[in-house]
């Protein structure tokens, strides 16, 4: 005998179902940022402000670029990001401009934004996701987190999966290669470089290079030319924004012919935007970085020509 009841659903059961469904649809979003801070949203973010160019790129990669209502200077990729109102730059955030946009989520950068700006915005009650990836894999993690916060997780997961696959192919292609001693010139006046915790140093290691200043305590540190001469790198890699800067930067190092990198003509240039932004394009920057280190390795391992010999 069938126990199925036909007819209208009892009112109490109907209310229970509606309540349960409402709880699922309106469930709070809880995500941890790279620093381990908990970011809590009552619903997916619809008005997002980005305080760093790489956060902007990651947001678009997560499928939520249309939620961006404000961004800092140099948030110029993808092209649609240029249309967004500016809310400051590397020197600081325009707090009044941010508040006026009434964001329901702010994307900050631990080592790029002033701590006082972040704390001020937090004190005003704005939810803040802080980015500070130290490993290449964490870029994919952050894209997924942004997708979760914006309600575009399926898009973000697909992008993050492709990112991890490309990263793994790069890693396997350059595994177990002879090491190349690399000096990465972050800036020239004053002379600056990176330590082993900096993301670019992780990319150098993936390519089979060894950052000669990986032992320094600061992510970005000022050094003197004597330190570079003493470490005698086999390759010097210089990030530039414009090709016109390459000749002058190369000439400045050619004044030191005792350096092995100069002797081997292992002075290379890479696009700064592709390596200095902790976003998806860093994989293209890493690919170019690996190509330069491969070339440096080949020159460094080539048999030395003997002077005075006849062909």
Distance between the termini: 103 Å
Query: What number is the mean pLDDT?
Result: 90
Q: Please give the CATH architecture of the largest domain.
A: 3-Layer(aba) Sandwich
**Run of helices and strands:** HEEEHEEEHEHEHHEEEHEEHEHHEHH
Would you tell me which CATH topology of the largest domain applies? Rossmann fold
Roughly what percent helix? Answer: 40-55%
Number of domains: 2
Round the Cα radius of gyration to an integer and report it: 25 Å
Strand content: 15-25%
CATH class of the largest domain: Alpha Beta
Q: At the fourth CATH level, what is the homologous superfamily of the largest domain?
A: Nitrogenase molybdenum iron protein domain
The total beta strand count reads 15
């Amino acid at each position: 005998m069938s126990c199925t009841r036909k007819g209208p659903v009892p009112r109490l059961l109907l209310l229970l179902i509606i309540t349960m469904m409402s709880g699922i649809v309106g469930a709070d979003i809880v995500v941890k940022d790279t620093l381990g801070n908990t970011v809590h949203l009552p619903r997916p973010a619809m008005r997002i402000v980005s305080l760093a160019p790489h956060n902007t790129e990651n947001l678009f990669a997560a499928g939520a670029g249309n939620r961006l209502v404000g961004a800092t200077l140099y948030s110029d990729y993808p092209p649609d990001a240029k249309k967004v109102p500016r809310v400051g730059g590397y020197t600081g955030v325009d707090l009044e401009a941010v508040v006026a946009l009434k964001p329901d989520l702010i994307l900050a950068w631990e080592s790029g934004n002033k701590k006082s700006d972040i704390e001020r915005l937090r004190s005003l009650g704005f939810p803040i996701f802080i980015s500070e990836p130290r490993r290449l894999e964490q870029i994919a993690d952050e894209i997924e987190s942004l997708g979760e916060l914006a309600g575009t997780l399926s898009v973000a997961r697909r992008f993050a999966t492709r990112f991890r696959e490309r990263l793994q192919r790069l890693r396997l292609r350059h595994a177990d290669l002879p090491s190349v001693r690399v000096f990465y010139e972050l800036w020239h006046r004053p002379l600056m470089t990176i330590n082993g915790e900096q993301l670019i140093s992780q990319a150098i290691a993936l390519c089979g290079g060894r950052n000669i200043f990986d032992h320094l305590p600061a992510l970005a540190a000022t050094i003197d030319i004597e330190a570079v001469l003493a470490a005698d790198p086999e390759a010097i890699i210089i990030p530039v924004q414009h090709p016109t800067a390459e000749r002058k930067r190369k000439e400045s190092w050619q004044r030191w012919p005792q350096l092995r990198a100069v002797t081997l003509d292992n002075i290379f240039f890479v696009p700064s935007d592709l390596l200095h932004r902790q976003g998806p394009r860093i994989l293209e920057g890493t690919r170019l970085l690996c190509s330069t280190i491969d070339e440096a390795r080949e020159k460094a391992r080539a048999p030395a020509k003997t002077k005075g010999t006849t062909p």
